[in-house]
């Protein structure tokens, strides 16, 4: 262990690192329930997604552990999975058979591009070219979007012909239990309970089982209300097969829809790019891993672990794999090396044999997790500057505003970037526009043209 992770150099011990890895896993294990639930909306088999998520998380986290030697764990990114399922599959590719196969191809291409960008050290340059206000506006907008997805899935928010949206029926168990779950997680967070999001999901699920046993929750598969009680036979603990998702890419559609596919890939790139950089720097700063100049040693390996994880995830059958900010919980417990990440990766493999439990958890039990994670992401709005440059302020604001209102992460990014660019041009600030942003804007202009045509 000492030779692999240099524990003495980092002033840590095996016990501390293992406990930190367990803590990190507990705080991010909710993704094993949320991701299959979310991606199944696009038509994917939830069992296959569960296995793909666990395997991709373990693989990417092991690369981070052994190659980069950092206490950072990776899994299918929140927000990116929502973009995959709701914006791409149920939005831009609506009406196409198995749209998730095209979306997986986009994730594959994104990962390959990331590997190239990371290899030539261009990724940081691109991230630095994006205005801070846009970054914060996009992050907070994604937070609102995934919270809205959660509330809609639980029936707390419903469609309405007069007002577009309305409040759901509090008499329904799904609505009541979702709201209880949100409060449970919030209270646990107040008391710094480890794994509060996971505990909130499990408590909400158990309350749902009680509601089913008492007759309040009625099982009706035709209405989407499946039994909440998992099958616990010996065979059910065998990890679900990924045969239905493994390397299931559809490149045929791409040939005749190149511009639309480019925008899909770019939106994945745009969100994942600064999300990863921000997460990694934030976790590294908390672990005191930055050098005296504020730089992160071996940052190329960190970014490469993220990129390889994304490619592997797309092949296995899950959305973009990225570094998780929940890794900071393990760092707070003293994790400083790859041994923390290795422990988390091992626990993802162990979780493979608990699929009956994770797959029986309904959407109304995972909805509180989406709302609370959305809350944490939306808090980035506090960092936005509204009194400075108007292009930065309006661009960030429109990105934040349009994501939930148009039910699309891509639309929010597009509105924010184009508004920022146009205002910069009209106010004579051409010299302040980074060359990279010209390329970004050109891609979104192509997207607007394809929408109009």
TrEMBL record:
<feature type="transmembrane region" description="Helical">
    <location>
        <begin position="80"/>
        <end position="96"/>
    </location>
</feature>
<keyword id="KW-0472">Membrane</keyword>
<feature type="transmembrane region" description="Helical">
    <location>
        <begin position="12"/>
        <end position="34"/>
    </location>
</feature>
<dbReference type="GO" id="GO:0005886">
    <property type="term" value="C:plasma membrane"/>
</dbReference>
<feature type="transmembrane region" description="Helical">
    <location>
        <begin position="46"/>
        <end position="68"/>
    </location>
</feature>
<comment type="similarity">
    <text>Belongs to the nucleobase:cation symporter-2 (NCS2) (TC 2.A.40) family. Azg-like subfamily.</text>
</comment>
<feature type="transmembrane region" description="Helical">
    <location>
        <begin position="346"/>
        <end position="377"/>
    </location>
</feature>
<dbReference type="InterPro" id="IPR026033">
    <property type="entry name" value="Azg-like_bact_archaea"/>
</dbReference>
<dbReference type="InterPro" id="IPR006043">
    <property type="entry name" value="NCS2"/>
</dbReference>
<keyword id="KW-1133">Transmembrane helix</keyword>
<keyword id="KW-1003">Cell membrane</keyword>
<feature type="transmembrane region" description="Helical">
    <location>
        <begin position="198"/>
        <end position="219"/>
    </location>
</feature>
<dbReference type="Pfam" id="PF00860">
    <property type="entry name" value="Xan_ur_permease"/>
</dbReference>
<protein>
    <submittedName>
        <fullName>NCS2 family permease</fullName>
    </submittedName>
</protein>
<feature type="transmembrane region" description="Helical">
    <location>
        <begin position="102"/>
        <end position="122"/>
    </location>
</feature>
<feature type="transmembrane region" description="Helical">
    <location>
        <begin position="435"/>
        <end position="452"/>
    </location>
</feature>
<feature type="transmembrane region" description="Helical">
    <location>
        <begin position="397"/>
        <end position="423"/>
    </location>
</feature>
<feature type="transmembrane region" description="Helical">
    <location>
        <begin position="174"/>
        <end position="191"/>
    </location>
</feature>
<feature type="transmembrane region" description="Helical">
    <location>
        <begin position="251"/>
        <end position="271"/>
    </location>
</feature>
<keyword id="KW-0813">Transport</keyword>
<keyword id="KW-0812">Transmembrane</keyword>
<feature type="transmembrane region" description="Helical">
    <location>
        <begin position="134"/>
        <end position="154"/>
    </location>
</feature>
<dbReference type="InterPro" id="IPR045018">
    <property type="entry name" value="Azg-like"/>
</dbReference>
<dbReference type="GO" id="GO:0005345">
    <property type="term" value="F:purine nucleobase transmembrane transporter activity"/>
</dbReference>
């Amino acid at each position: 262990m000492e030779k692999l992770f240099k524990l003495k150099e980092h002033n840590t011990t095996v016990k501390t690192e293992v406990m930190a890895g367990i803590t990190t896993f507990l705080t991010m294990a909710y993704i094993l329930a949320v991701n299959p639930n979310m991606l199944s909306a696009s038509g994917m088999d939830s069992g296959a997604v569960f296995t793909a998520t666990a395997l991709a998380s373990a693989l990417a986290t092991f690369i981070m552990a052994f190659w980069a030697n950092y206490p950072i764990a990776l899994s299918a990114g929140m927000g990116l999975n929502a973009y995959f399922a709701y914006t791409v599959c149920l939005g831009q590719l609506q009406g196409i058979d198995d749209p998730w196969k095209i979306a997986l191809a986009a994730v594959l291409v994104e990962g390959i591009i990331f590997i190239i960008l990371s290899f030539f050290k261009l990724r940081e340059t691109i991230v630095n070219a994006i205005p801070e206000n846009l970054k914060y506006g996009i992050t907070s907008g994604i937070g609102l979007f995934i919270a809205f997805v959660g509330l809609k899935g639980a029936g707390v928010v419903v469609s309405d012909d007069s007002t577009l949206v309305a409040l759901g029926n509090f008499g329904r168990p799904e609505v009541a239990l979702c709201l209880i779950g949100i409060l449970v997680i919030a209270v646990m967070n107040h008391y710094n309970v480890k794994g509060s999001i996971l505990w909130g999901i499990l408590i909400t699920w158990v309350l749902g089982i009680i509601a089913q046993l008492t007759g309040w929750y009625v099982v009706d598969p035709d209405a989407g209300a499946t039994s909440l009680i998992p099958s616990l036979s010996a065979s059910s603990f065998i990890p679900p097969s990924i045969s239905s998702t493994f390397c299931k890419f559809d490149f045929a559609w791409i040939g005749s829809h190149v511009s639309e596919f480019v925008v899909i890939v770019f939106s994945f790139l745009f969100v994942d790019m600064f999300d990863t950089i921000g997460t990694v720097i934030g976790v590294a700063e908390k672990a005191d891993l930055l050098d005296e100049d504020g730089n992160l040693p071996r940052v190329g390996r960190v970014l490469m672990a993220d990129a390889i994880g994304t490619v592997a995830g797309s092949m296995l059958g899950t959305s973009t794999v990225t570094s998780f900010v929940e890794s900071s919980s393990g760092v707070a417990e003293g994790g400083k090396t790859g041994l923390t990440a290795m422990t988390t990766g091992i626990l993802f493999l162990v979780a493979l044999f608990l699929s009956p439990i994770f797959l029986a958890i309904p959407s109304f039990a995972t909805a509180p997790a989406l709302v609370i994670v959305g809350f944490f992401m939306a808090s980035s709005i506090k960092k936005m500057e509204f009194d400075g440059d108007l292009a930065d302020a309006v661009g960030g604001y429109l990105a934040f505003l349009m994501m939930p209102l148009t039910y699309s992460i891509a639309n929010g990014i597009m509105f924010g970037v184009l508004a920022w660019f146009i205002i910069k041009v009209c106010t004579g600030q051409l010299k302040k526009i980074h060359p990279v942003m010209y390329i970004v804007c050109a891609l979104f202009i192509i997207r607007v043209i394809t929408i109009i045509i």
